[in-house]
């Protein structure tokens, strides 16, 4: 299993686990909270079948990556992305970020990109700025995030169970789009994450990516569901095109937050059309 060292903490290396499969143009997929690179299985298989090289990795603190006590801010997380692209010497990259992964895409493009990335996609993404304040009235009230942190501190497994029900909109999309077994699989992955990472990432969600987005000049696709109960489209994806001239917005009708599973066929077609 391939690991890439991205830092050190005391006597231990901080390493991220990644998978590098296929040939052709490289597509780097960055997962959401609190899952892992394995959450891309429906997109990964479609991209491989279409002849792309598919790279996924587990964010520090999640999946099979190291679980350090620090580094859960977006500057560090995006630098981990930078280290991966540099180590693999990837060129003409399409960078795709789901949910929290959209933050890595935005910050990487705003701070670390040196021409390796030529297309980006924000899928059910956290960008452009989630925290509501006087400069961002379209955002989400800060007390919502404090409530999430309190629920995690009380019983993160109970919090995760409730979160995943909203993540996939089980009651809205019905059993044909997501099985109880698939939700349980996501629950198991989330349970395996570091508690520190699980909690600390909530503070990272308050990051403002608007200046990062303004620096993106490559072709950009935004995919978002209009029934997203985790990151409502009006506060997130629906605002991105105004910050990136020429970007395209694909709205998945009835799509929940976890639309890369529940609406994988539509999502994959939109992504493949954008990449070709």
Task: Describe the model.
GO terms for molecular function: hydrolase activity. The chain is an alpha/beta fold and about 280 residues long. It has a single domain, classed as Alpha/Beta hydrolase fold, catalytic domain (Rossmann fold). The protein is about 40% helix and about 20% strand. It has an eight-stranded mixed sheet, sandwiched between helices. Strand 5, helix 3 (about 100-110) and strand 6 (about 115-125) form a beta-alpha-beta unit. It is globular, with a radius of gyration of 17 Å. The mean pLDDT is about 95.
How much helical structure, as a percent, in the residues? 25-40%
The CATH topology label is Rossmann fold
The CATH class designation is Alpha Beta
Low-confidence stretches: none
CATH homologous superfamily heading: Alpha/Beta hydrolase fold, catalytic domain
- Radius of gyration, in angstroms, nearest whole number: 17 Å
Strand order of the largest sheet: 1-2-4-3-5-6-7-8
**Global morphology:** globular
* CATH architecture label name: 3-Layer(aba) Sandwich
DSSP strand content: 15-25%
What is the total tally of β strands? 8
Average the pLDDT over all residues and give the rounded result.
95
Q: Note the main sheet.
A: 8 strands, mixed
Helix count equals 10
CA(first)-CA(last) distance = 30 Å
Order of helices and strands: EEEHEHEHEHHHHHEEHH
Structural category is alpha/beta
> How many domains is the backbone divided into?
1
Short description:
With 276 residues, the protein is α/β, with parallel strands linked by helices. It has helices spanning 41-49, 74-87, 101-112, 142-168, 170-173, 180-191, 195-204, 210-214, 259-262, 264-275; strands spanning 3-9, 12-21, 26-30, 53-57, 93-98, 117-123, 220-225, 248-252.
């Amino acid at each position: 299993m391939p690991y890439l060292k991205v830092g050190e903490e005391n006597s231990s290396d901080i390493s991220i686990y990644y998978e590098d499969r296929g040939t052709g143009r490289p597509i780097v997929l960055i997962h959401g909270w609190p899952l892992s690179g394995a959450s891309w299985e429906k997109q990964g298989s479609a991209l491989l079948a279409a002849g792309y090289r598919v790279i996924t990795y587990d964010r520090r603190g999640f999946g099979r990556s190291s679980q350090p006590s620090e580094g859960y801010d977006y500057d560090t997380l995006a630098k981990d992305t930078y280290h991966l692209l540099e180590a693999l010497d990837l060129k003409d990259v399409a960078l795709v970020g789901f949910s929290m992964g959209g933050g890595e895409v935005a910050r990487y493009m705003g701070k670390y990109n040196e021409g390796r990335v030529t297309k980006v996609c924000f899928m059910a993404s956290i960008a452009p700025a989630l925290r509501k304040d006087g400069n961002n009235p379209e955002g989400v009230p800060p007390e919502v995030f404090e409530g999430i942190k309190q629920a995690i501190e009380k019983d993160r497994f109970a919090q995760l169970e409730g979160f995943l029900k909203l993540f996939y909109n089980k009651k809205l999309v019905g059993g044909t789009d997501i099985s109880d077994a698939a939700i349980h699989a996501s629950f198991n992955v989330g349970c395996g994450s570091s508690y520190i990472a699980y909690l600390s990432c909530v503070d990272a969600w308050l990051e403002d990516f608007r200046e990062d987005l303004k620096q993106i000049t490559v072709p950009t696709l935004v995919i978002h569901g209009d029934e997203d109960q985790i990151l409502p489209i009006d506060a997130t994806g629906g605002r991105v095109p105004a910050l990136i001239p020429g970007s395209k917005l694909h709205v998945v009708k009835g799509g929940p937050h976890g639309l890369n599973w529940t609406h994988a066929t539509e999502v994959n077609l939109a992504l493949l059309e954008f990449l070709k």
